[in-house]
Design goal:
By secondary structure, the chain is mainly alpha-helical. It is 84% helix and 0% strand.
């Protein structure tokens, strides 16, 4: 029994990573509320708000693949903490500008671009480093814990705190985020390093192409990546003007908007807590299909929300479904991809998955400008349904063909 408990217990370096994520994600949740609220004080044009969101996600399209090659040849832990130090400096500068009332939409766009670039480094490195810390059989649980704390911080604790701080002073939420980045970086720097086995790294272009070829040749991950591409485009198409829908159409104030996001986080947190049990009960394929189908139905309904309570409930259900399929797909990548290629393959996957989010943000802004603030969600839901229908003939046999994955 002692050996069994020891095998099930996650190692102490993992919990340092978990605490770093907890600190960082609370700060991110604060700014995720404060940034759109700050943008609304400057303009109420949905197209301009879409431009700022697009700038934040643009680095995933432009930089994810070369950064993935760096993740596989460099010190993953070092890349993580250095990127967070840079984020602390960037958001600290925004806090100073906000305090001096020197922020305009161009400043927000440049800040979003810089923070997004650092996030590409941190995001790719953190997913690649987890299998170095946690054994294969524990990955579902470890990813579930990571997703749960991310959702608690970004969507549950951070948003109401961000709305409250923003109401007190515009600069406060950004100053708190800078402190959270610094604290998280200090913890990440203590994680153990695993040296890369490659004695003579291949040229960067060759390394990048190896990741592209590996993903292109794997039927399941290729299908999941393309489906993620469509889903994140649609997600951003609907969500980019959520702040306007909440504050202008449903008449929530800054604190109410934060509470709306916090309430929506309940579903995401539950999804992270119970994902491993659901996967064990119904299987990987069923978990994927149920989550993806739920996303379609929920997005169709969100656009017709009569009040903030219904909107919050639908957002919570969407968070549960999104978290479920996200954890399953991340764990599949970590188990299937060879460790020396994980950074590169992961970067290609996330480039495909997140690369169209800038276009989704721009499209959502234009749709809201032309057809109203509610229009983006049902349009996005319909597009997600079409994408799922197209993917099913490939996705179902591909998941079945993979079968049980042996621990790394």
């Amino acid at each position: 029994m002692t050996r069994t408990l020891a095998a099930e217990r996650l190692p102490s370096p993992y919990w340092r990573l978990w605490w770093a994520a907890a600190i960082d994600n609370i700060g991110d949740g604060v700014v995720a509320t404060a940034m759109p609220l700050l943008a609304v004080t400057i303009t109420r044009d949905p197209i301009l708000i879409g431009v700022v969101s697009a700038a934040t996600y643009l680095p995933w399209l432009l930089l994810s693949i070369p950064i993935g090659a760096l993740v596989d040849r460099g010190d993953r832990v070092g890349l993580m903490w250095r990127s967070q130090v840079m984020q602390a400096v960037i958001v600290g500068g925004l806090a100073i500008l906000a305090a001096c009332r020197q922020v305009d939409m161009a400043v927000l766009a440049v800040t979003g671009l810089a923070l997004g670039t650092c996030e590409v480094v941190f995001g790719n490195a953190s997913q690649a480093v987890l299998p170095d810390i946690v054994a294969g059989p524990q990955l579902h649980r470890a990813n579930g814990h990571q997703t749960t704390i991310a959702n608690l911080g970004q969507l549950f604790v951070g948003p109401p705190l961000g709305g409250l701080l923003f109401a007190v002073a515009i600069a406060l939420p950004f100053g708190l985020d800078a402190v959270s980045f610094a604290g998280s970086a200090a913890l990440v720097a203590t994680l153990p390093r695993r040296p890369r086995k490659e004695a003579a790294p291949s040229p960067i272009r060759t390394a990048m192409s190896e990741g592209l070829r590996w993903l292109a040749g794997h039927r399941l991950l290729r299908a999941l990546a393309l489906l993620l591409c469509a889903n994140t485009f649609c997600f951003q198409l609907g969500n980019v003007t959520l702040v306007l829908l909440a504050t202008q159409t449903l008449h929530l104030n800054a604190h109410g908007y934060g509470l709306l996001l916090s309430g929506a986080a309940i579903g995401s947190v539950l999804g992270g807590l119970v994902n491993a049990r659901i996967v064990r009960t119904i299987g990987v394929l069923a978990a994927l299909l149920v989550a993806l189908s739920a996303n379609v139905a929920i997005f169709l309904a969100i656009g017709f929300s009569p009040d903030a309570i219904v909107l919050g409930m639908l957002l919570a259900l969407n968070g549960f479904a999104t978290t479920m399929w996200s954890i399953v797909s991340v764990t599949l990548r970590q188990q299937v991809v060879p460790a020396p290629l994980l950074g590169r393959v992961n970067s290609v996957y996330r480039m495909l998955g997140w690369g169209l989010m800038p276009l989704g943000a721009l499209a959502g802004g234009i749709i809201a400008h032309e057809f109203g603030l509610r229009a983006g969600y049902p349009i996005a839901g319909a597009l997600r349904g079409i994408a799922l229908a197209v993917a099913l003939p490939v996705l179902i046999p591909a998941v079945r063909a993979v079968g049980p994955v042996r621990p790394r």
